[in-house]
Amino acid sequence: MTQSITIASGKGGVGKTCISVNLSIKLAQLGRKVSLLDADFGLANSHILMGCNAKKTLSDVVAGRNSIEDVIEKTSSGVQLLAGGSGLLDMLNLDNKARYQLIRNVEVLRGSTDVLIVDAPAGASDSAITFAAAADRVLVAIVGEPTSFMDGYAFIKAAHVETGLSKFSIVVNMARDGAEAKRHFDKFQAIALRFLDVELTYVGHVPFSAALRRSVVARKPLLATRSEGHRLEDEAFTTIARNLLAAPVNTGNGLRFFDGNLPAEQG
Ligand SMILES: Nc1ncnc2c1ncn2[C@@H]1O[C@H](COP(=O)(O)OP(=O)(O)OP(=O)(O)O)[C@@H](O)[C@H]1O
Ligand SMILES: [Mg+2]
Predict the structure, then answer these.
(1) 130 near 102, Cβ under 8 Å?
(2) Given 3.40.50.720, 3.40.50.300, 3.30.360.10, 3.30.750.24, which CATH number is that of 3-258?
(3) Which of 90, 101, 121, 209 is deepest in the core (most CB within 10 A)?
(4) Nearest to 73, CA basis, from 135, 26, 21, 136
(5) What is the chain's mean pLDDT, rounded?
(6) Which residue among 21, 180, 216, 217 has the greatest number of ligand 1 atoms within 8 angstroms of its CB, and so is best to mutate?
């Protein structure tokens, strides 16, 4: 069965794309067939972090010029990338119909995909919420700052109120260590549970990492490079990947990727 995971955050710049890219590579290293769909339309940059040129993008699909299959880029890490468009105002304002068509068209990836990772736009826009509601799991990335807590909370609230989503996985990015990350999660969870009837699952943290930052500049995903120099980051993504595949799923009856089929596998 093909499963789907949307990465969201509320606040921008907290590391959604870094996490989407490296998590995809980690899942591929763990033996899964992975497709990464960049749904951050207009500001898409997964292909930049992946080091791909992306001649055709999802904006060509939305414009009717190409099919989903035309956009698939097979990357050296084994991940299939579907790049988003960049700098296109109309893509920023993707309408409901285009979003729904895209979710339906993703069906063609079923045979070549065990796990679909969707890099969602920042904020609590209709796009971010639609792509979250269409996935089996939503991973919300936060960092240990009040602005990230507020925006992460606002995203969860909007997704919960508007679509009934109730299960959210949480990853803490840019943490000093596991203990600090867990404290941030506990604080965030206390805020969310005070006001919302939702279930949050802590799946792990990504350490603050100069190597990760350098990998973005070099356009070579950190986990795609073999080195002992990033053992901590590698282990962090292994933990996140395993916990995430075992985390509770949402089973809404709206429009879902792959018709919302439920993963047989857990972990
Ligand atoms: N764990 C980390 N340690 C150090 N720097 C990080 C880490 N994660 C992300 N960054 C840096 O933070 C910046 C933002 O990361 P990224 O582009 O992944 O965020 P984003 O949430 O996708 O942003 P946007 O909302 O614009 O899509 C980048 O410069 C990246 O190198
Ligand atoms: Mg991004």
Answers:
(1) no
(2) 3.40.50.300
(3) 121
(4) 21
(5) 92
(6) 216
Question: What pLDDT, on the 0 to 100 scale, is given for residue 88?
Answer: 57
118 Cα: distance to centroid of ligand 1 (angstroms):
16
Query: Could you tell me if the CB of 122 is within 6 A of ligand 1?
Result: yes
pLDDT tens digits, one per residue of 198-252? 999 999 999 999 999 999 999 999 999 988 889 999 999 999 999 999 999 998 8
What ligand is nearest to the CA atom of residue 205?
Answer: 1
User: Is there an atom of ligand 1 within 6 Å of 212 CB?
Assistant: yes
| Domain ranges (residues) in the chain | 3-258
Q: Tokens at residue 94, please?
A: 């993707």
Task: Give me ligand 2 centre to Cα 123, in Å.
Answer: 11
Residue closest via CA to ligand 1's atom 25 equals: 12
Tokens representing residue 31 in the block: 């033996």
- CB of 206 sitting under 6 A from ligand 1: yes
Give the model confidence (pLDDT) of 82-136 as tens digits.
999 766 555 566 788 889 999 999 999 999 999 999 999 999 999 999 999 999 9
Q: From the CB of 17, is ligand 1 less than 6 Å away?
A: yes
Q: What is the pLDDT of residues 55-81, one digit of tens each?
A: 899 988 888 889 999 999 999 999 999
Residue bearing the CA closest to ligand 1, atom 15: 15
Confidence of residue 267 (pLDDT cuts 50, 70, 90): very low
Query: What is the CA(189)–ligand 2 centre distance, in A?
Result: 24
Which two three-digit tokens encode residue 25? 């590579």
Burial 126-159 (b: 16+ CB within 10 A, else e): bbbbbbbbbbbbbbbbbbbeeebbebbbebbbbb
